[in-house]
Amino acid sequence: MSSEFTRTDVPPLTEAIQPGTATDPTIGSTDTATVTVDGHEVTLEEGATVLDAVTAVDTNEDVPALCSYDREDNIGPRSECRTCMVETDDHGLVPSCSFPAEDGLNVKTDATAATEARDVNLDLVLSNHNLRCTTCGKNGRCELQDAAIATDVEEPRYGVLDDRDAYEPIDDSSSFIQIDRNKCILCNRCVEACNDVQVEGVLHMEGSGQDTRIGFQNGAETMADSTCVSCGHCVTVCPTGSLVEKGIEDAATLPIPGFTQKNSIGQSFESTDENKEPMTPMKQDDRSETNGPTSTNTAGESESESELEDWP
Ligand code: SF4
Ligand code: SF4
Ligand code: FES
Questions:
Q1: Could you tell me where the Basic and acidic residues compositional bias lies (predicted)?
Q2: What is the gyration radius of the CA atoms in the chain, in angstroms?
Q3: What is the model's pLDDT at position 158?
Q4: How, if at all, do strands 33-37 and 106-108 pair?
Q5: Phi, psi of 166 (to 5 degrees)
Q6: How far is the CA of 234 from the centre of ligand 1 (A)?
């Protein structure tokens, strides 16, 4: 695994451009390191992180890394989302994206504390996300959706952003890029792509707390009024449907069977004449406490077909 990235690789910035990476913490190991992840040994070059080790082996559990993109591309990690937590013998729980790969480190992706931390943090991300997958331009190619499916999210414990009165209007002003801030998870990838890679200086984070949002450095209210040159790099790195190419939104909303406006992730069912079963396995043993169908059946034995037919 290449790990030749150093801070000096960050492109120069003009004074007028607010950087996305300048405040990133220093990350990566100071030397080559051999790390054990779920019993698999992997040797990494200088500058590697625990996430580099995790992605190099076949881990027991899926480890999302929603605010990390590609350090060689000078984008992330920002250590914001904490969906990448793993357990280490020496340091306990750590964010794998930014923790250095220390020689001799023993990492467990399936430790109870690590899976619980990732689950809680993913649910926190989902709690501020408009989970309307079926009308989303990134449906089927969304990292948040992938993470939710891979970790069997059933009912995000903190709910989702589902209050239409609280929705921020979609910015449809650009001819090329649509911004739906209701789907933004504030990962900062677009800011770094725009400022530190393209050096265009269009995007930045503005506001604070619950009001934090993607904004424009020239103070514009809309993408059309910003200094955006429509290079599209921000769209490429956005993990969700917050930044989407214009014109292909509809084409991207169909591929996943079982997803409807009501169920979005988690309560999805692939339905054929012979087989009706959850698209994502149920987490809870007792389905009766959920609002959806009450079966955990993956063999088609105990669930009520009539209940499934009632489900959207
Ligand atoms: S498309 Fe516009 S906002 Fe996005 S990276 Fe390029 S210049 Fe920046
Ligand atoms: S618009 Fe996309 S890339 Fe930018 S912060 Fe929001 S989720 Fe991340
Ligand atoms: S990917 Fe590690 S904190 Fe977001």
A1: 273-289
A2: 21
A3: 86
A4: parallel
A5: -90, -5
A6: 6
CA distances to 11, 180, 265 from 154, rounded to whole Å, are 42, 24, 7
Residue 36 and residue 107 in contact, taking contact as beta carbons nearer than 8 Å? yes
Tens of pLDDT along 18-48?
666 545 666 788 899 999 999 999 999 998 9
Kindly report which listed range (100-104, 110-114, 291-295) carries the lowest average pLDDT score. Answer: 291-295
Q: Which ligand is nearest to the CA of 246?
A: 1
Q: Which ligand is nearest to the CA of 198?
A: 1
Segment 158-201, tens digit of pLDDT: 888 877 778 889 999 999 999 999 999 999 999 999 988 898 99
Q: Are the C-beta atoms of 206 and 220 separated by less than 8 Å?
A: no
Alpha-carbon distance values, 28 to 20, 111, 187, 299, 304 (Å): 18, 23, 20, 46, 52
Q: Which atom of ligand 3 is closest in space to residue 98's alpha carbon? A: 2
**Amino acid (one-letter) located at 97:** C
Q: Does residue 174 line the site of ligand 3, with CB under 6 A?
A: no
Nearest-CA residue for atom 1 of ligand 3: 65
Give 71 Cα–ligand 3 centroid separation in angstroms: 12
CB 218 within 8 A of CB 227: yes
Q: Is the CB of 3 under 6 A from ligand 2?
A: no
